[in-house]
Amino acid sequence: MAFVEDFYDRLSPFYHLIYQDWDSSMARQGVQLAALIRDRWENKAKTVLDVSCGIGTQSLGLAAQGCAVTGSDLSQGAIRRAHLEAKSRGLQVAYSVCDMREIETHLLDGFDIVLSADNSVPHLLSDEEILLALRAMYSRIRPGGGCIVTLRDYEQEERGRGLIKPYGVREVDGLRYLIWQVWDFEGDQYVLSMYFLEDKLQCGEVRTQVMRSRYYAVPVGAVRSLMEQAGFKHLERLDDVFFQPVLVGRKGI
Fold this sequence. Notes:
By secondary structure, the chain is α/β, with parallel strands linked by helices. The chain has two domains: 2-154 and 218-250, Rossmann fold; 158-216, S-adenosyl-L-methionine-dependent methyltransferases. It has seven helices and eleven strands. The protein has a seven-stranded mixed β-sheet with strand order 3-2-1-4-5-11-10, sandwiched between helices. A four-stranded antiparallel β-sheet has the order 6-7-8-9. Strand 6 and strand 7 form a beta hairpin. The radius of gyration is 18 Å and the shape is globular. The two termini are 34 Å apart.
């Protein structure tokens, strides 16, 4: 996973620019996820472990909704920034560096909910690796709790090379950023190249940052089947509660 770690270490200073308004997106996702947890667990789930927290988009949003949140991520750069973002907002989130496949030995406490949002699971490049991570998540869930995973619907995505995914233009403190992704498929995997073109408007100086990672274009249905193999029950796919399809599974009492 060193490829992924390097990608997010380099992306972490720019990550908020992916969003037109990161704070608004963070708040909206926090509201949506907290509402899902309240609805499915009838206000009984209080503690959340976000195993792919990045710079804090979901974990900070959930903390602002009153959840007791713990966050982990394999990127040291992302965790450093998440700490700073939590402090600047007066939010209490326990962050640490950990690969989601290793949380069983890294975190000894149990949680009501384990979360992996924003298409993080497909960084694991095989069904076997995803199953390993899901079993680790299952091990950290208290009886009666559950798991929430959000994913891209790859069955709706074009396959090919040189596929451009534009994110638009952002202007911050006299800098203009042009942001886009390029996808290059190789079978069921693809290399994602993330470009940030930084234009210093006052002097015309331009600098480009590019970082790359690899994804497994795993169908949502395949992840659902892997969650069942990992032990989760009462599995649901929800398509109208978040910006991506959501898979929900429960751990028996």
